[in-house]
Every structure is written in structure tokens, then in C-alpha cells.
Amino acid sequence: MKLLTVTNLYPGEDLPHHGLFVEERLRHLAAYESVDAEVIALRPGAGGGVRKETRHGIDVHYVAVPTLPVVTNWIDPLLWANTVKPLVKEIVDRSSDRVVLDGHFLYPDGVAVTLVAKQLGLPVVLTARGSDVNVKCRNAVMRRWVKWAARNSAAIITVSQALKKKLIEIGVQESKVTSLRNGVDLEKFSPRSEDLAKNTSIDETFSLLSVGHLLQDKGHHLVIDALIDVKDARLTIVGKGPDEAALRRQAARVGVEERVTFAGQVSHSELAGYYRAADATVLASAREGMPNVILESLSCGTRAIASDVGGVSEVVSSPVAGFLMKDRTAAGVVNALSLLRQSPEDRSATRRFAVDNLSWGPVIEKQMSIYEEALAH
Length: 377
Description:
single chain
């Protein structure tokens, strides 16, 4: 089977942290002997041309695609399809295997991939990942495009049951949609043996970790405000983004500046160390699909406090995994943290929860069956 992934969510030398979750899933799929994986990574608005990298043994073609924000990108699917079609055809023509197109993020990526699939007579499987459904599908034009792509695809995968439900609510045929959560690399994200029995901080403070782009929707500002009432807590924020200066000013304004550390962007390989050092990870997002931050934290033995959005409740389903915030507010963070501290758990129990529930194995097996069925029909 030739699996040709087409998406703007893929990392490269230019964007090393972009779409790592798509690459991670593809790496596990490519481990199958029967799968020959290749990627077309779209770069909206970038300079012209195509460049190629090989990442983890997978050839990746980075293609600049035009975008027209002036018309709210309603015609981006057509522009992107016309741009990538020649390269897709070239890859298909030189492949000795049957080809399945694998599109991640429904709009405009998935729609563009489906347009190409119809023109070339290829099966396409799409994956919905979060804001493509939660945000894009609020727009009537984009929603109509997504419903068209759903009708003309072999299958749609969602990374949470919540996303599946939303797609069905907007009119996507239920039989087309399968929910398959993300998995986690249990080796990369693992606790140190000396930490497994810990359930309190190694020093006199309680260490909180908040990971994500420094944007309003990620809720870092709520965690900063929560420190006002949690006097013994320190917070480390990992990520970068346009709100950094505002967050620093906020920390100073509310008097917690000395207890907040901005670690900036760290490599994926370094991130495990931050989870291990934390007593709890906080995810106060306004919206999520299936957040890798939670999966990675639990795999390191660190429980989570999270807003009840997207597929979060499908993972934070037990005190051994953590607690959901009743309200997405600073008070909601404080209350959830209080519950967590009143219900201590050994990190080894949280690690076992991750091993038992969050590995890639069952996910990849089901995904392979979806691709094989797409080829059969």
C-alpha cells in the first residue's frame, strides 16, 4: 500500500514543531512492512517551488500553496488542489503499489485532497483534528465544502468522540466517521524510575506546567491568575506566541511574577523532562480535539487539570488521570487543583493508566483496516 499524506500540518526544517502529532501517527503506520509512506506538506503563502526532506525514513515534499485571505479563503481548496495535483499524479504514476490519499485537517486541506482524489480516481481517507470542525465548520461556505468532501471520501477519522458527534450534527453520514484517538510514544514520554512513587512536590512548592502556543485560547492567563489563590504553587509555561508580553505583564500586575517561568519553545525530545518535573499539568484551553499535552503528561506519570472541551473528558476520565475544571476560569483551575491535591495518586498509577489506555498499537491497527477497506472499495 502506498500511503500519500497531504496536509499543511507537518513539521520540517522551517517549522520543526508544526504538526508533530501527524508525523508521529504516520511514523507508526510506516512501521508496517506493507506500508510505503510519503508526504506532501503544504506551506500556505510560502515562496514558490517544491523542496524535499527525508524525515525518519519518510520522503516529504514541501509545496508552497497560494491562499487568498481577502476572500476568507473560501476558494483555497481549489487553489491548493490545482497546485498539488501534478505532484500527486507523478507520485502515483511511479508507485508500484495501490495508493490511498491521507488528508489531515478537513478545511481546506481535506477538501483539496478530495478534489484531487476524484480527478485521479483515488480513494481518500480524511482526519478531523479539532478547529477544522469546531471553528471552520461554523462558516456556512466552509461547512458546505466539508460536507461535500465527507460524501466523496472513503472514510473520515476523528481524534475524539466529541468531534465525531459534531460532524454528525452538521450532516455527515454517521457510517462514514470513525473515532480514533491519538496515541503517545510511551518510550519517549516516560517517568524516571526514582519519580514513580512521588505524589507530592520534591520541594516546598507545588509545580504546575502549562504547555501550548501563547495565545488567548490556550488559557495560560487563567493559570497565572489561579496562582493568586494558590500561594505555594509555581508555574512553568512552555511555548511561544504573540501573547508572551501580555502574559508577562499580567504575572507582574497580579504579583506572581517571581513564581512564573517562561521556558519558551523547547524541542519535543526535551518536553518529557518538563512533564517529569511537574506535579500537575494544566490545560485551560477554550477548544481542543484530542490534546497531545494530556497524553504526554500522563505517560510521564504526571496528572492533569483540564478544561472540559473536545475529547479531553475521554482521557481525563479518572482521578488517576486528573480532574476536569467545572468552569473555564481561574477559579475553575483552583478548584480542580484542590481536588487533585486532596486525592493523591502515585505517579506509577498514572503511568499504568497511560500504558493501558493510550498506546499507539490498537489505534494503528484500526487505522490500517480503514485504509485497506478504502482500497477494497
